[in-house]
Design goal:
Blueprint: E1 3-7, E2 17-21, H1 32-40, H2 42-52, E3 60-64, E4 72-76, H3 88-105, E5 110-114, H4 125-140, E6 146-151, H5 161-186, H6 201-211, H7 215-220, H8 226-237, H9 241-247, H10 252-260, H11 268-277, H12 282-290, H13 301-311, H14 317-326
Parallel strand pairs: 1-6, 2-4, 2-5, 5-6
Antiparallel strand pairs: 3-4
Helix pairs in contact: 1-2, 3-4, 5-13, 9-11
Length: 334
């Protein structure tokens, strides 16, 4: 997928460009900087880094990658956090924007970032994450590149306290309701289920007409496929294909496959991602997913988190994926 969050050591990630949180002076710093030098080859990398000289905070420069599984190391200098009133946020945004621009200039197809400035520089982790997501999102809406945000451990990854609290409350509330329904169901006799009663004649007529059909007739009248309904919704949204697949965090090849195959059957995370990109309400989303044989379950934490964001009309794919990563769940996209 164009954007991923993974837990790993960035020196072990394969990408065209590996971003290093560099010391502003041409010397080996601590943390990620030291790890990158050690993995790439300390003496050779330092010699090339010294040719660049000083790097100002927010700026970026490149060297070869030496022993890393990459073509380039992009060195960027993050801001040391003081109090948020010394342009720390603007400088951090520049780190991501300038690194991405340089990777594009170098014709990179992939780039891996650490969470810049969240170590010894002390930038608040939740704010640093949000800035990273915003800048990567902004770049990928205009460019084709695989971007990986590499998190060394769970301690270095923080969502805003309010968002985590709201999601936790939502999960607890709905899991409680689900368990209550399960207990009620177990104590209810199912030997003689009640017939379904319709409140309007139209639904009753549909039911009768379907039951009067042969299997062949029912298959001929099965309705629109996932692909057909998706393309209708894209037309209704006013967005073009490129905007939709970028917002859905899927690549052009997969989207072309979906568009060309009427009977395409997507994976759940792909179907949900497209629904999020189109900013569908819950009813329309469930209808679209149902055409691919996909349902949202009240017993699934993944499904509940998706439902939380949709019901709150928050369709930011990067925020949703950050939340899914936080809870150890698969990310949306493909």
């Amino acid at each position: 997928m164009p954007f991923q969050i993974i837990r790993n050591d960035i020196t072990k990630v394969k990408a065209d460009a590996i971003v290093n949180t560099a010391n502003p002076l041409p010397i080996v710093g601590s943390g990620t900087d030291s790890a990158v030098y050690n993995a790439a080859g300390r003496r050779a990398l330092l010699k090339e880094r010294q040719k660049i000289g000083n790097i100002a905070p927010g700026e970026a420069a490149s060297t070869g990658a030496f022993r890393l599984d990459a073509k380039y190391i992009i060195h960027t200098v993050g801001p040391a956090w003081v109090d948020g009133k010394h342009r720390e946020r603007e400088t951090l945004r520049s780190c991501y924007a300038n690194s991405l621009a340089l990777a594009d200039e170098l014709s990179c197809e992939s780039i891996a970032f650490p969470l810049i400035a969240t170590g010894v520089y002390g930038f608040p982790k939740d704010e640093a994450l949000q800035i990273a997501l915003d800048e990567i999102n902004r770049f990928l809406l205009q460019h084709e590149m695989d971007v990986v945000l590499v998190v060394f451990d769970r301690k270095s990854f923080e969502l805003s306290g309010k968002l985590v609290g709201d999601i936790d409350e939502y999960l607890e509330e709905h899991e409680f309701v689900y368990e209550a329904e399960r207990r009620r169901y177990r104590t209810t006799s199912i030997a003689c289920p009640k017939p379904v009663m319709y409140e309007n004649e139209h639904e009753d007529a549909i039911c009768c007409s379907l039951t009067d059909m042969s299997l062949e007739e029912m298959l001929d009248n099965r309705g629109e496929t996932f692909q057909q309904r998706l393309l209708e919704l894209i037309d209704e949204s006013g967005m073009d294909d490129v905007t939709v697949y970028k917002k859905a965090n899927i690549d052009r090849k997969l989207f072309s496959k979906i568009r060309s195959k009427e009977d395409y059957n997507p994976k759940k995370k792909t179907a949900v991602a497209l629904a999020i990109a189109l900013q569908l309400d819950m009813q329309t989303m469930e209808d679209l997913l149902g055409r691919a044989g996909i349902a949202l379950s009240p017993s699934s934490k993944f499904d509940l988190i998706i439902t939380y964001f949709v019901t709150n009309k928050d369709y930011n794919m990067y925020d949703i994926n950050a939340a899914l990563f936080k809870y150890g769940l698969p990310l949306l996209g493909a």
